[in-house]
Every structure is written in C-alpha cells, then in structure tokens.
Structures
1.
Amino acid sequence: MTDDRTPIDGPAPLDEPDDERAFARTARRPRSIDPPELGFTPRRPVPWLAPLLLISTGLRTLLAMLFGAYLDKRELQNSLEARIERQVGPDGGLWLDYVADLGDGFDATYSVAYLLAQPELTVDGHRLPRAQTLVMGGDQVYPSASYEAYEDRCKGPYQAALPVTPPERPTLFAVPGNHDWYDGLTAFLRLFVRSRDRHFGGWGTGQSRSYFAVELPADWWLLGLDDQSGSYLDDPQLTYFDTVAKRLGPDSRVILAVPAPTWVKAVDHPTAYDSIDYFIRTIVAPTGARVRLLVSGDLHHYARYAGPDRQLVTCGSGGAYLYPTHHLPERIEVPPRDTLSRRASRSLPYDLAATFPDRARSRRYGWGVFARLPRRNPGFGTLLGTVHTLLMLAMAGVAAGRAGGTEQRLLSVPLVAMLLVTMLGAVFFAKPPSASGKRHVRHWILGVTHGLAQVALAAAGTWAWLSVPLHDWPWPLPVAAAAVVYGPLIGFLSTELVAAYLLVAAAFGVNVNELFAGQGIDDAKAFLRMRIDPDGTLTVYPVAVDRVARDWRLNPDGSPTASWLTPKEPLTPRLAEPPIVLEP
C-alpha cells in the first residue's frame, strides 16, 4: 500500500496512457447538457406501474428466484484476489459516507451525488468535510442491471458530480442489491470489481469481489456482505471473512453493511434475518469483536432502531422513490423469537428511535396517491381504461341481448373471460406471499375485494353507457365512441379506485410498496456521513434533504473537480436527527 487512504491497487497514477486519456475525458468540461457532451443520458424516474415495466420486472424477479443459483457468480469469484483494504485519513481518523438505492431519476440521484461530492457541507452548524470513503449500499441502478442503465442512472450522475479525483483520492466500495443481481451480477462486477480503469467518477473503486472488508481507524472494521438477494452466504465469501476474522479481536468494532434491513423484514418473515445472524454468530462473535452498527438500504427511507449495544440503520434514500415510515413497528426483536434457526442468537429488543420523513409527513405523502398515481403512470391508466372498455362492451352486449352479434364477436371478449381477467389481475396485484408469511389471508381478501370493486365500477359504467344514445349508433361507431369517450374517463376513474385501494390496503400492511412506488416521490432523500475519530469514537450524521433540485445550470468554467451541474436553487441539507455517537 502506497498511502493509508488508497487501496492496495487503487487509483493508478495519471502517468499511465490509459489514465491520461481518462483524465483528459473527464477534465474536458461539458458546454451543454446534450448527452454527447455529458457522456450519458439523464433519465426520468422509473414509472413503476407502467404495464410493460410491471411485466418485465415480474419476469426478472421470477427468473431470479428460479435460476438465481445458476446465475450466481460468487463461487467464480474465488479465483479473484481476496484483498483486505485499509482506509485511514491524514489525521488518523476517517470520514465515511453511506448511500443506497440511488440509480433512479436524474434529479433525485444527482442531488444526493452533488452533496456527496462537495468539498464541505455545513449542516445544522456542523462542518462535514467530503468523505475519504464512500459506500454504496445496494440497488445502484433501476429497474434492471444493464450496463447502459448503470451509465445513465448511476455512474454518469456521479461522474458529473465529481469528475476528477480530488487530492484526498476518495475510495468507493459497493454492496450489490436485488436489482444489481437481475443480470447475475455481470454489470456490477464490470463497474465495481475490475483490474483496469479503477475509477467511478472521481472515486477510485477499492474492492476485488462483490463483498469486501476494510480496516478503519481505531480498530473499526467495515464489512460488506453479498447474500444474493437474501438467499445465502456462499462458501468462498465465508472463507474470505474467516481470514478477516483472524485480524479481529475483543477491542474490534464492526460496521456491517448488508443489502436489506432484514431486522425489519423478519417481523413478517422470521427467516429473513437468519443469514446475518449466522454471519455475526459464526464469524464475528467468536473473535470477541462487536457489531456496533448494522446499515442497509433497500427500503427507501431513513430509520434507526436502537438496541442495548447496537444501532440498526436503514438509509435507502439515495435517489429511488420514497418508501413510507409510518408503517414501521415501534419495537422489534432481533433475531425474532419465532425464527426456525435453532442456533439463533439471543433475541434482544430494539426501539424505533428516529425516521425520515417522520410519521405525520409519511402519512401525508400516502394521501397524495390520488393526484400522483395517474400523473406519474399514464400507461397504467391507459391499461385500466382498455380493460374496462372491453369489459363494458361485453356487459353491454349481454345486457342488450346482442351477445352473439358481430360487435360482440369481433371487438369484445366473452363476459366471463373479462370478469376472470379483472378478478385475477386484482388478486395478483395484491401479491399473495408464500405460506411462510404472516399476512397470507389479508392479501387474498384485499385482492378479491379490490377485484369486486373494479367489477362494480364496470357495472356502473355499463349502466351509464346504456343510458346515452351512443350505444345505439350503427356498428362500428359505438366501439369508436367507447374508445374515444368512455375509455379515457373510465381509465381515470379506475386509476382513482386503485389509489383508494392502495391507501386502504396499506393500512393493513398490503401493497405498501405499490402505494409509494406508484407515486414516484423524488423528495425526502438522505445519506449518512460518519466520522471515526482517532480515539475510536464513531459519530453518525444522517444528512437529509426535504426537497431535491429540479433545475440545473452548467458549470463549464469550474475547477476540474467541481461538479459539472449546479442547482439553480441551493440545496438545503439538514440532519434527520441529532448526531448518533458511539463511544469506544
């Protein structure tokens, strides 16, 4: 190692030809926001309820579940170098950043990247210098892990935020989340685990596998796990951490970065926490070291659970749509008492200490679904309008006694089939979980109720349609009128009915994610800035942004390390809660 702040084979000196060319590319500042000038295409937020995206995401999730073991590249990583990194700042301490769930729409992702890249932030009176180490905690890209998506939604914005490596040469480590796994980790490994051009914007990439261990000041350690979307920890990974454990001792303290907050998910699925508990119980605990901080993304908010000797922090607010906080339990037991693991650690209580946004604001965001759902997802409304128009034509044909007529045969489908499609669509939308879940029946009941409500809306729409003279026009004029007049109106009404269903279902813990994914809320973003003092004190500053920037101006004449784009209205970060101090 040439420098305590630089990984063993980290950012190479700029006298090498490849790096000279890379430096020239990044040092040339863009003169417009055209994609050829920026080197990437700024993307709009993902419309999560778009019909084609719903289908493709469902297929990817199904394929990942069915064939994840066959696509698992972790076993192959055994052939890669098993490095243990070291990160120490010039004063013997270290500034460390954590951000997760970041590669979505440009405005939100770049707002957070811009703050991370600034030489210093002043937040509620605290001066917070730019971190020497950045950890990305999972789901670096949405909706799928293609190389193009990484470039446009993640690497490009971070390149624009910090184009050239600053003097302190910050280093980046990344944990893969479930979206990073959709292609079997191929694009993730190309970006974060490589032997050449080890740069991610102005950050040097520091890991040699999809998991990592970093020695920090004062016998603190940062361990990043890859559990392949919650499946298991592979043998090469456990062997790697066995080697790491030989350097831990009773005075060691551990920050454990994991892909998902399974301590919360275990409330409904008791086995969710088993992999983390196994790791702590078999790798860390025998050394006498203590895991003082567990940190994760995956849920797109900030939440902290405080326990006797450990903090459990979720901070998945790096750019993806907001996830609510008002459904979080006030107290959890970790590991849960009803886990199936016979050798689980002793269960301890953890209390919810802080959230961002707070519960009241989270509830208000939920009520915004009526306005945001149709505006953010026009394709979803079009799909509902099409289904309802076909259902109305089928009902109208039967009600008017023309079930065998030309109109019914050519441009509608049998009534029973359309009713079946409507009911099955509503039930599958409720996503009944496996039998191991605790709310299996609620999903079915709410899904069926939602389906019946959509059928009732269709019946009311059919009655209204038969009350106007349009249905008596010669064929095919009624069909054309239905498509032009009835379709858009019923599409909007059925979308609002879905919004009402989501609001009610979320109160019972069902379709909570869809309630907020359908709104695509850009605001309420956060990241962690942490300081390890030379004496071993760890201070966590949860930096929050109530409103992200939406208008940007070019900064063509700035210094090489200055951000390419700056917000027209200043971003005003604040602390989501007072700093959390962990004493040695």
2.
Amino acid sequence: MNPVSETVETRSTTTRPRRRPTRADVLAIGAYVLLGVVVCLNYWADVNNRVSSHLPTDHSWFEWLFAHGAYSVQHLENPLFTARQNAPDGVNMMANTSLLGVTLPLAPLTMLFGPQVMYALYLGGALAATAGTSYWMLSRHLVRSRAAAFVGGAFLGFAPGIVHHANGQPNFVSNFLLPLIVVRVFRLVEPGRWRRNGLVLGLLVAYQIFINEEMLLLTALACLVVVIAYAAMRPRVAWARAGTFAAGLGLGGAVALLLTAYPIWFQFNGPQSYRGLQGGVFHSWGEDIVAFVTFPRDTIAGDEAVEATIGMTEQNTWFGWPLVLLSVVALVLLVRRSLVARILAVLVVVFSVAALGPEIRFNGELTGIAGPWSYIPADLPLVEMMMPTRLTLVTTAALGVLLALAWDAVARSHRSPVPAPRAPQSVATDRRRLRWQHVVGYTAITLALLPLLPRPLPAEPIDAPPTFITSGAWRPYVPDGRTLVPVPIPSNVHGLSTLRWSALTGHEFPIPAGYFIGPNEDGEGVFGAPNRPTSTLIYQTMDAGALPEISDENRRQAVADLRFWRASVVVLGAHPREPVLRELLTALLGAPQRVDDVWLWDVRDRV
C-alpha cells in the first residue's frame, strides 16, 4: 500500500492509474467559481467606489497592497520595503500582511485593471481556488465519491470563518496552497521519494510564507498534531517510517529556509521591524463557547443582531447547531472504523479547546474560568502575535474533511453488495434499510450545510479621490523626494479615503503616516505611525467638529511636522468635516488655493 494511503487511509495511488480531469471535476470548479462571484457580488455593482462595510480600512489596505506590488515591479524596487507610505520612515512589508506572493505575480493585471478590480477579482478567485485544491486533495487522496469531495472542498473554501475573513482580509482566504502542503507532508514517508517530496514541500512552504505566515503556522501545528496522533495509534508503522519522514522534512525545511532566509531576516531585523505587539493585543481574543452553535452573520441563516450578544469576533467557529450536531454524530459513527476520523477527532478537540483563550467566554460574558492561554506567557515569541480564536480555523479544516468522509461513507454503504446467500425477504429488507440510510445521510448533511451558504458580502460606497488627484494635476506641486500630505492624514482610524489616493494613483506620490504596523519608541509593534502634534490636532478637530484655539506654538509645530514629512503640498478634498478642517489648516498655514476640486496649501517655500 502507498504510504500516504496508510497514513490517512486514502486510496492507493500505486494500485490505480492517475485519474484525468472529468466532467464532474469541471462542474465542481465551475460551481466554486460561481460561488466566489456571488460572495463578491456587491463589490462588482460599483467596483471602483465600494469597500467592505465591516472592514473598510482593511479593504483599502489590500487595495494599496496590490498597487504596491505593481509599483515594485514597474520600478524594480525592493518589495520588502516601501517609502510610499509613512514617509519618510517607510513600512517594512515583510513585517506586515503584504501578500507579496500574490501582488507581485499579478502586477501586470493590476497595472491594466487597477487595484479595485484586482481586489474583487482576486478575492473571489482565492475562495474558489482554495475550494478547488481542497477538492483535488479529497478526490485524489481521501474519498472515492466526487460528490463527497465537492462537499468537503466547498466547505474548506467557503466555510463561515473563511467567508467572514473575506470582509477585507483576503490573506486569510488565500489558502489554496495549504491542501497541497498537507498532502506533501504525508507523502514524505514514501520510500525512495523523500528527496522529491521534500523539495516540493520546501518550495510550497516558501511560497506560502509570502502569502500568509499565520495560516502556514496553523497548518504546521495541525500537521504536528496529526503526526503525533498517528504515531500514538500506529507506533510500529510510524517508527519504521520515521527516518524517511525526517529526511524529507529536513530537506523541505532546508529548501524553504534557503529561499526565505533574507526576507525572514528582513522581517525581524530590517528597517521598521518590531518585536511583538504592544500590550499583546491579540492574546485575549479567545473563542466564545456559544459561537460554535451560532449561525454566522454572512450566511443565509445568519443575523447581525447576534453580534450584539456574543460580540464582534472573527466568527471562525460560527458553525450553527445543525453542523455541530451532525459532526458529533459523524465522529461517533466513523471513529471505530476510520483512522482518519480518529485523527480528525483529536484535531477538533485539541484546537477547539486551545482556541478558548486566557479566560472562558460564554454568550459574550467572561466566566472567570481560566482558559488554556492563561498558562502561556503573552510575550512568548510567535505566540504573542497569534489570536487564540484563529486556532479554530484548524477545526474548520477538520470538519471539512469530516463532511467529505461522512458523505463518502453514505455513498459506500449505498454501493455495498448485499451478503449472499440470503432469503429474498431479507435481501429486500436490507436493500430498503440501505436506501433509507442513504436518504437520511445525504439529507442530514445537506440540511446542516444549507444554512451556511454564504450571502454576498456587504459593501458600502466610499468617496472617489478628487479630480485633482486622479487627473495628475498634483504633479507640478510634488517634486521628487517630497510628499503630498492628504487631509485627513491616513491612520488606522482616520483618513480611509485619503489612503486610497495613493493606491488609486499607483503610488506615484509618497504620503505620511498610513495604515500598517510599525515600531514605537520601545521597538514594539503598534498600528499606524506615532501621531505627531499636527496630526493629533487634525484628528481632535475632526472628532470635536469645532476649531480649537490655535497658538503660535501650534503653527511652529505644524511647520516642524511638515518639514519632518518632507511635505511639498497639503491637500484637502471633499469630506464631511471639510469646513472645520479648512479653518484649522488656514489658521495653521495661511490662506489656501482652490485648485480643481481641492483646497491646497503649497508649503515648499517653508520646509
């Protein structure tokens, strides 16, 4: 038997010829693509002027990232760092969610269609691609039924937690390499092929590092638990193949390290790198126990009102009670005869419990009961950057495989021959029993999944950049080496629309501050640039809606800040707070010019 088959009880690839794509495969991929289009439908209604209603800032950040990839390719600049945001200090792109493995290859399309189109196009494509590679993994290595592989692939690509992250975080839906990585890990035990398998694994891991390191870490943890569980259940077989597995794993690790050594060094030691996040802000984000049986917001059974009870979490485990009940029943029925089901049960328990965080939550309330993360130091390397709730994305993957196994088990029972010789009445009874098992099994799985069908993600309009920006009228005002200061100055709270000015013009001018993670004075990671006095004054004026008293010190500091930013021009476009912001900037910098559809302060002679 093929070692992969024995590891996960898959169909042997050595006893059957490699299957060619069939009509069923084409239909499955087509269905995934169609579902990806449906999820992004509200964006396509006005793709240039709509962003996610739930994470508009993240949406704009990823549009900016597509523009960064195109700019890096077009100007042959180092993509690991940029000075087009947070000028003059810049941003360490490896220390941020930069999606370089996607934005660089797609740079030509971004130049052609623009970052807004590429964002929506890629988001739906990534969902469909993840479902497609999951379908391939299941149909080629785990189940016989193509329908079973389709169901499992659809869940792995469009599970509630994945669709929830699609609200502005395409890096968490870009999981199309992960099924290939998992398959390659378990094929490391194939005798005589450890070099090839190790090499391919190393290449896949290296590429995934440039897509999403956190999902790679979760996959590695899941594989570790699977290997330990398998070794405990099949110790003799595991020991016999440990040498081959270790050799392939070592080669894969060496290849991945060789290809990514400099980018990883740059991430932790390059300019604008940082050590951990200030205050361990992610450490407390544990999963609520009630969330497991709650229908997720972005599905046909979901309701936004439930968030007022449980809270605005990432909804990684909002499976709904029918799927939870089905999963429990499926595990009970399958664990005795399936090694895979037993390993899946271990994964579900380990990662669901681990995701509960430092204190157990129940229906939105802290219970005072210590959770597993209460015993883990918040400043532990790698752990300090993780959200406990995201560990349940492994639970999600395990349930996707379980659904495929359950559907396949029903299909196999339907095809099982009736033992002979039997009396005609007994044969007829057995056939009726099998038929009812068939109907009940398929119906149960379908009814558990139907409420989780995703709805189009909610989108909201956003102001288009001023004509002054899109027409290029800014060019005479911004010489090389100087910045354009948009007002409001972009940050993780303010200036969402002005951040897009940079993205939608292809990063042709650098801007100060922005939306990213960078170091503070102590080297800890914080969101956005440390506020300078002038940016703080702008934000306070916006929040108050009234002009504060302006002193000579405010004016002096404004000039100092503009000098730090290497500003050449300050630009205020249409904004709900435009009147009071114009009063503020006039009090600080003097009377503005009206150029096209913006107010402009030319400060080149002052800084």
3.
Amino acid sequence: MKEYQVKGLTCANCARALEEQIQSLPYGEGATLSYSSGKLRVNERVNLEKVRAILATDGAYMVEDELPQRKRNPLLYLVGTSIFLFVMAFLLERFIGNEVVIVYIIATALSGYKTFIKGLKNIVRFRFNMDTLMTIALIGAFGIGEWKEATVVAILFGINEYLEGLGMERARRSLDMLLKQVPKEAIVICDGQTRVVSIDSLQVGDVVLVRPGEKIPSDGVVIQGKSSVNEAAITGESMPIEKETGMSVYGGSVNNEGMLHVQITKQYKDSSLSKILHLVQEAQETKTPLELLIQRFAKYYTPFIMVVALFVMTIPPLSFGVPWHDALYQGLAVLIVGCPCALILSSPIALLAGMTRNAKKGVLVKGGVHLETLGRVRTIAFDKTGTITKGKPHVTDVIAYIDENELLRIAASLESASSHPLAQAIVQKAKQHDISYKQPEQMETRTGSGIEGKIDGKRYRIGNERIFDQQDLSEQIQKDAEKLKSEGKTIVFLADEQHVLGLFGIADEVREESKAVIKQLHRIGIRRTVMLTGDHEKTAEQVAKQVGVTDVFAQLVPEQKVEKIKQLMKDDIVAMVGDGMNDAPALAHAHVGIAMGKGTDSAIETADVVLMQDHLGKLPEAIAIARRVNRTIRLNIAVALSLKAVALLLTIPGWLTLWIAILSDMGATIFVSVLSLLILWEKRTR
C-alpha cells in the first residue's frame, strides 16, 4: 500500500463517500481515506488519475499535486462576499424590486456552488450524502420562491463547512507540532574529523557531536561530556535531566548547555521519537467500534431523512389540506436538519486530540480503540519488579554491632571486587555516606554463600547465613535477622574471625512515585489495584503495604500471571502494567496493556500504551484524558442527536424554518468541534 497526503476534504461523511468510490476501482479494495489525518492509502497498482478525479469531485487533491494558488482556502472569502451581497440586497430590496432576486442567486452561488455541483452529480448517481441534501433543499427553496432563506442556508452552510475544516485542521496541527521535534542532520565524528550527515544515514556505533541547543539525532549513550537534557518531547518530563558519561539519551531531546559526544545505539527509524511519530500517525487510521457504528448509522440515516422529508412534503397536503407551499418548505427544512456531519465529527476530533495530548505528555497510545478502552478501565494490575519498584536492590537496613561507618567501610571494601547486585547495593550505600574504601587483599569466593578477604591485614567474611556456623549467631543476631526476614528482605552478614559485626537488610527499592500514583488512581475511580509478582509472599506483601495496592498475588510464573489477568477480566475492564519480557503475555491478554518506556522491546511492542518515562507518574493523567475523551464523545453524540430531534419536532406545529434547520445543524457541528478541541487545552500552572 502506498500513502498520500490529501487536502481539501470537506467533511467526514464526504471522505467516507470518496473512500467507497476509490474502493470500487480496480485494485482499490482495501483503500482507506482518513478525514482526521488527511491520509490516503491505496494499492500501488490503482489508477491514480481516476483517484485524483474522484477526489476532485469533492474539491480535494493530493499534496503532490498542490499548486501555489490552491494553498489558501478561498471559501472564507467567498462566504464573506456572499454575506456582503446578502446584506446589501436585504437593505435595498424595496428600492431594487424583483431584480434583487439576481443578487440573492449570486450570493447563493458564491457560497454554495461547490456543494450544488457535487449534489447534482450525486443525485444522478443516486448517492445520498450531505451535498445531496443541501442541493435538493436549495433547488426546492428557489422553486417555491424562498430566495432569502435559500441564500441564508447557503451562507450558513458555507460557514459551517469552513469551521468544520478549521476544527479538524487545528487538531492535525497540534499533532504536526510533534513532527517539528525531528532533527534533520547530525554531526558525525570520525578519525578526529567532523562531517554533517542526514539522520537517516546514521548507523549503530557512530559517534555524534551534540552542541548546546541542538537536538540529539537518535537514541544513544553519552561517551564524553556532561550536560542537562530536555526530554519533554519524548517523555513529557518538563524538568531537564543531568546526563554524563555512560547515561542513555533519547533522539529528539534537546541538549541544553554542555558539549556531548553520543554513541548511537539505534538507527533513527528505530529510535524512540521515530516510533512515537509513526505509532501516533498510525493510530489515527484505526477506527473505534463507536466510530464504525456511527459511520454505519450515517449510511442509512441520510436516506431515512430523505424519506421522512418526502412524507412531510406530501402527507399533510394530501391528508390534512395543508398548503403545498408550507409542506414543501417544511420538508426542505427536514432535509437540512438531516445532515449527519455533527454526528460523524463527534468522535474523530476528540480521539485525535486525546492521543495528541497524551503523546505530548510522554504517553503513547497506539490507537483510538485503546484510548477508548483505557478510559473505561476500573482495575489495574501491576508487575512489581521494574514497575512499582526500580528493579534494583538497595540497602534498607544497617544493623551494626560496631561503629556503623567502620562496618560500611569494611563491607564496601570486600564487595567492591564483586559485580553481584547485592554487593553493588552495599558499595552504593557506602558512597552515599561518603565513606572511602579500598580493594581487599587475598580475595576468596565461597560459591553460593559469600566471599572472604583481608582488609588492613585482618580477615573478614561477608555473605548469607550459610557462610557461618549456626553457633556463631547469638540470640540477638538471630532475632534481628528474623525481623528482617519477616519484612521480606534479603540479609547479608559481615563478620571477622570471631564475631558477627553487623547485618544488612537489602530489598528492591520502591519507586518514589509509586505510592502517590496508586493513591491518585484510587481517587480518580480505579476500584481495584493488583500487584502480580514472582517474588515470595513476604516481600510482595511488604511492597504492597508500602504502596497501598488493594490485592497482591505472589510467586507467579508468567503463565499464572495470564490466568490472574483472565480472572480479573471476568469482572472488570482490566489494564496490565509491566516492563519485562515475562510480562508480555499478560500485557497481550489484558483489555489494555501498558508498558514502561525503558522496558524490554517485547513488552513495548506487545503493549497498547507506552509510558515513555521510566516511572508511573503520567498514568493517572493518561487515564483522566482517556475518560475525558469518552465523556466528550458521548456528549457530542447526545447534543448532535438532541438538536436534530428538537428541530424535527418543530415540524409538527409547522414552526421549523430553513433558518432554524441550518442553525441547528451548524450549532451541533460547531459544538462538537469546539468541545473536542478543548481536550487539547491545558491549564497552565505556576
């Protein structure tokens, strides 16, 4: 399939009709035309000249065919001229006489000639859409001598058409702002020389120079330099993050002040920014069940309205003696009320606005259907390690039977030679207290239990309780150890040749924001928060108690996590949040899978939503935005149908006029467009 950008689409209903015509061409099966993104996808073998001809019937064209004079939308100027002519004709009617009809016809033609031409073609082809309804209404109004009303209908319809296009264009522009984050070139360092290359030509392993104020071209690792980096475009994090040698950086983020040498770890096409742009643009093309329902409804709704209008025109005069002029007038008004534009627009602008706002916040939603489902979630299941916790052990307790600083110095010296995560946690603890340590002498590893070594000529042992004889552990030491065990912590003992000198309690560190996020989720209406983990129960219960989740299930293998998700899905709409390869099956089975941005590729690819920040902070806001989108869509549909229903009811006493009909249709369209665009608006906080 080949993709083209299309401009000039007048409405969502018209885009759907054009799509159906293109699909009827040879090799046109599977073609899609999205009003919300302005993208056309067609088979490469389709006849493009015929596609262009079909688009031209609606005044639309491919961007590659765009001419300089077509860049400005002439509709606003034509409508403005029509309004001027109408006002002049209205004021001078008594002086001009019957010749004023010519002015009304000219004013109508300026605003409605495109609609009129398209409508006539549709009538010939027996295709019924908005243009068909408006054309019949205009012909009928002129036929019964309602010149003023016909002109007002054409003018208001022109304004409506302009505002409708403006609303969708505003939503598209908001998305296009993301595209401006894409760097175009990079400075590659090779053999001490620098050269400027396109970011598309960057290869893994290339070293690039990023000067202050420049964008980092692709994901990589800092190998030289120190600076603060603004990652707002990728993660939504507003505060700059300090970067130094060995730290990873995102492509598209901005280097603030220092000079950085970055080694590229991903080609641009595989970078985080590229994936965000690709997936958000792709997400616009997916239609939610509600959108599909509305489109099917509109397909049958328009012919139904024409039948209703026919009854209104014929039954009252034939059965109740109502004058034909009045009945025809009422029937024409019914046709205008029946335009389905507001109904079709009720969903796409809101979904596009919601996905764009979430993307700006660093939350990538891979489709409107996932955004809609996210807004209905009432139960959230979390993996523990790497999601609620940092997935990195740290020392939580130091129980010293000698001076604590001395205990840390000896322990860090012994562990400094080890790459084991528990050893590194103890070394990190010593660094936090600015305690200096040195390499041990005569190191000896005890597999499965610990290490021995000399510090300042004295022999020490560090490890788990298997490195000691049970008689070496006094009652107090055993009591302290049992307390740490009951809290689900791993214990490391340090001893010299005669005595145990102290204990270290080590646990996976809970993320700083986890407790606040869980509390916020409960506050916004998430009924149940569940933690799923492979850890043993005491550790899991300790973390669950610390962060405030409502349920915890421990000692689960990946298959059991899936079973738990399936059980939860029987009672509620469930989201699963995880970061590891072992979480991917559960992410796939949940109604909505949510992956951490720095999780494994398998988790990110499987998930429906990706939190680009490496924490849960944006999750409550993402759910709140999704819920707002759902509320907006429901309200849009209710208002669109209600205004039409009220207008149609006015036909019973004969109060429905062409003016009221077009204002009700126009009002509904403007309302759904503005309400949907408000999703993009965010209060500024100091």
